[in-house]
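Job type: complex structure
Entries:
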Amino acid sequence: MKAEILATGDEIRSGALVDSNSAHISQVLEANGVAVIRHTCVGDDLQALVDVLHEISRRADIAVVTGGLGPTVDDLSSEAAAVALGVELVLDPEALAAIKAWFAAHKRPMSASNRKQALFPAGSTRLDNPLGTAPGFETAIGGCRFFFLPGVPVEMRRMLDEQVVPRIRSMHGARHCYRIRSLSTFGLPESVVNERIGGFAAHFGDLKLGLRARFPEIHIRLYGSGDDEQELAARLDAAARWVAAKIGNRMVSMHGRPLPAVVGGLLRRHGATLAVAESCTGGLIAHQLTGVAGSSDYFLFAGVTYANAAKRDILGVPEKILTTYGAVHEETARRMAEGARRIAGATYGLSTSGIAGPGGGNAEKPVGTVCIGLAAPRHAFGRRYRFFYDNRSTNKRIFAATALDILRRELLKADGEIHGTEKGSDTGS
Amino acid sequence: MKAEILATGDEIRSGALVDSNSAHISQVLEANGVAVIRHTCVGDDLQALVDVLHEISRRADIAVVTGGLGPTVDDLSSEAAAVALGVELVLDPEALAAIKAWFAAHKRPMSASNRKQALFPAGSTRLDNPLGTAPGFETAIGGCRFFFLPGVPVEMRRMLDEQVVPRIRSMHGARHCYRIRSLSTFGLPESVVNERIGGFAAHFGDLKLGLRARFPEIHIRLYGSGDDEQELAARLDAAARWVAAKIGNRMVSMHGRPLPAVVGGLLRRHGATLAVAESCTGGLIAHQLTGVAGSSDYFLFAGVTYANAAKRDILGVPEKILTTYGAVHEETARRMAEGARRIAGATYGLSTSGIAGPGGGNAEKPVGTVCIGLAAPRHAFGRRYRFFYDNRSTNKRIFAATALDILRRELLKADGEIHGTEKGSDTGS
């Protein structure tokens, strides 16, 4: 079954609003075994809407349309569907009563224009909206079943899950399952990841494989389908293990978890705590770590020490180190990591000092240079890296990921000492 | 002139990636006097790409296509254009040399597949990519001029500005100017902003006005066009001043600058420095402040003190305060701000302590509660706020913006004492 998605509205057409609905609908449809072949967006223009409904009806079996169900004169989805079908709009008394009840419950005055939201193309089926005033509807144009939903994401998502997906699943009848398994890697270029897993098709020809750059990570996605859910899960597991063996310790997560969550999981497993000293990453590492719910169990402190005086007075980096080596140096980074670890009483200290740009670079230490320090219970080190991005924000992100990944591999090594070598950071969880 | 936008790639088609490129391109084209009539997305499928190129060529005068210029077999844009044109792909030796030079400069091995990126449909014009390995190209299919750009946003945007926009402007020949003026507000609901600027059309009927929610800010956008650039700028300026007077001190920037940049500009103007103590925002305030180039001139230090011990030992918040009031309290927040200010030797200290969720809330201090502290040279205070978002990341963002906005209004007040009252944070810059 082939599906298309249509987003309507001048806000999206003109770029005032980014359309995140279509991506969400695509993912839900594909997870339910429907191939999405195209997305389209047109504005609040009756003829453009009618044209595109006809076009979609000739190409697709299923279409999901968002937007244009509101009370204003710009909301044209019902009218466009009626024109495309060659039928009248008719008032649905039940829908009108529900809209009246919604306004009463929310203690807001109902305007005359809201009556428009109870008008549907003759012969269509209403789709109730439990969260708002705009009901949707289902109708067939040519051989294509169209589901019209509101554009408000929270309303659209709920109606998609509760009303559209069950109808679509009943269309293809079978109990066929579809699963996507995502694995995340860091530190290898996309071309190298691609080469390493080159033999995949020969081993797992029944599964589909795709690479997805989610900077700074690269995700490997495995797609499978089958009649037996357990058997499908076992096949995906075997394929994920094969991929993990090819990628080695550059595999961040066997389940697509982002780096800060994986690092957090490892710290938790070790009963370890972390303190961070950030210069060039400016708080991004702390922000990413604390974005994980429950991170207060292992994350104690981050010092964002932009000024040298803060590196000296708060982290205790000796003045002599700063004057001898400068702020961006392996030795300074190591001392910063040790200082953060010491003042917070943490198991590990992690630090960054570098040049994110646009200013501050020189011939010896150009923009893109970062020194990362790690202080562990029994050793500490500083390392220098050089990246070639010409953008402050991109540099902050790659610096932060590089630092987190050094800690991740350090924790894996400690794992190896305890449990024997493992592939991937979260295979054991 | 009518334009269409085509996003290509299985990542976008399948919903793995939200397409933000098309919205950006729409805004740029519309700001340059081109009406965007449709966006489309199809996957990495040669026939689908050829079909949609033909369709667009029949409807539009201009088309911008993103994605599909990479080195892999999935990257099909050049091939699809060649098929649609009925021509061969030919190797561009200059493009090949540029790709080789890029890999040499970035000290990475060039793989054989990168050679593919120097192949273009015969008769097309290459568009150089100053930031990456994938050049774009321009060609006409039917009566429509197509601009093919890479999908990487930073590369696409640069090429759009520098190479596509000038070509499009020369197409419509005229010296007609189009300008968008963006004003940013924080702290008022969209409906209140809308009400306050209700009389706009009566005063400035020749300008268009739009609201755009860029959480947590709301931007007011003014669109104008005219033959005289100076006259147009003056009209937009007058309208911006009218809007600013209606919005009052909730106007963050008369030029759409984000809150952290506005706060940074005010600190710089005052010759003041800042230290931050973050608990619930977990480094986000520091990350936002240090995202502004040159922030090292005024940003000295942030302490992300998740653990109470770090609040006590590093910021010097008395144990008694923590045990009497708890971590989330106005008094604790005030002491945190004072501690950050003191240990970093900064002019201002700013702090957050609250509950971002999903856990950690209770009846007295539910998820969404935040206390913000400010320490200024002559006074200090703590204030409590309550938000109703059900999401850790959203709460971190609204907490951080609320804290930065308190500092912004404090700096404006200090401005008022020196320079007399001003409307808006950056009118003086």
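Summary: Chain B is about 40% helix and 25% strand. Chain B touches chain A through 83 residues (CB under 8 Å).
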